[in-house]
Design a protein that fits this description.
CATH class: Mainly Beta
CATH architecture: Beta Barrel
Oligomer: single chain
Number of helices: 5
Radius of gyration: 19 Å
CATH topology: Thrombin, subunit H
Strand content: 25-35%
Order of helices and strands: HHEEEEEEEEEEHEEEEHEH
CATH superfamily: Trypsin-like serine proteases
Low-confidence stretches: 8-43, 278-305
Number of domains: 1
Helix content: 10-25%
Length: about 300
């Protein structure tokens, strides 16, 4: 048997590592054909491209099986900060206790077994937008993790905001989550994606009482709808982070959907993450990730104390 060329394999592995670093959390432009319809009534495609930026927000303790404690999604915006919806982390006027919240990353399947030390972190600080009105306005929050996520793991990368999102009406965008497959149904095991069309704000104002001018209005491109468990997830338009799933909605297909505008809150997000001084978190505006999800009522009991 011919002896393998050690130098060749060393060079090959080195090149692979360089390519992985070159794609460090960068979302590139993707054609409409890349996207598949997901979330309620959807299915999966090209999982790795997006799932490495999205995290599952859970209670520390599960109910019966690992993964059934998922309640929201989130986007990693630095090695130690996650962006999500404020209503995921609050109950009426109370903010949940950080030590009751776990963030799981690197798994596009919700029910996957995972290493608690390598694939998850506990929250050590929560920052809810100071002007948040439950299910109405400023539905944003940031979770600081108790430890950094290592940068060498290609399956877990902060999302990069390298350009301004194009939120022109009639453009196609993408959202995702582990939410219910239908109203009051089971949560999806795999992360699901949904193609949506940017709509006129007037469309949402007719259907959503709490829609405001700085929100983003969308409707499903063909079928599907966001459900419980999807809240806090991202809206990605032409490779850039545009918004976050917010408010409260049912699972009826064809309804208009509301997203909090990411560009509108860019300054607050940057300032908040940079204020996490003790944790050494720094945020540049070309490195941003997003989170999402919806907290189910029975899970609040586990988080409030």
């Amino acid at each position: 048997m011919k002896r393998p060329n050690i130098h060749f394999w060393f060079l090959w592995l080195t090149l692979l590592r360089l390519f992985a670093r070159a794609d460090h959390g960068v979302i590139t432009d993707v054609s409409d054909e890349t996207f598949e319809f997901l979330i309620s009534g959807g299915h999966t495609h090209n999982i790795f491209r997006w799932s490495r930026h999205v995290v599952s927000i859970r209670t520390v303790s599960y109910l019966k099986n690992p993964g059934d404690n998922h309640f929201c999604a989130g986007i990693l915006i630095s090695s130690r900060a996650v962006l999500t919806a404020a209503h995921c982390l609050t109950e009426y006027k109370a903010t949940l206790k950080p030590r009751g919240i776990q963030v799981v990353f690197g798994h596009f399947k919700r029910l996957d077994s995972y290493n608690v030390h390598d694939d998850s972190r506990i929250a050590d600080r929560l920052m809810v937008h100071p002007d948040y009105e439950r299910y109405k306005k400023n539905d944003l929050a940031i979770i600081r993790l108790n430890k950094r996520i290592p940068s060498y793991n290609p399956e877990v990368q902060p999302i990069a905001l390298r350009k301004k999102a194009n939120v022109t009406v009639n453009n196609t965008c993408l959202t995702m989550g582990w939410g219910q497959l239908y109203q009051h149904g089971p949560y999806s095991d795999e992360i699901l994606y949904l193609n949506v069309i940017l709509s006129s704000p007037s469309d949402c104002k007719r259907e959503i009482d709490s829609f405001y001018e700085d929100d983003i209005c969308v409707h499903p491109k063909t079928k599907g709808q966001m459900c419980a468990g999807d809240m806090g997830g991202p809206l990605i338009c032409q490779g850039a982070l545009a918004g976050i799933i917010a408010g409260t909605m049912g699972c009826s297909e064809g309804r208009s959907m509301k997203f909090v505008s990411f560009p509108h809150y860019r300054d607050w997000i940057q300032k908040t993450v940079n204020d996490f001084k003790n944790g050494g978190v720094t945020l540049t505006m070309d490195m941003l990730m997003l989170c999402g999800g919806w907290l189910v009522s029975q899970l609040y009991q586990l988080l409030l104390y």
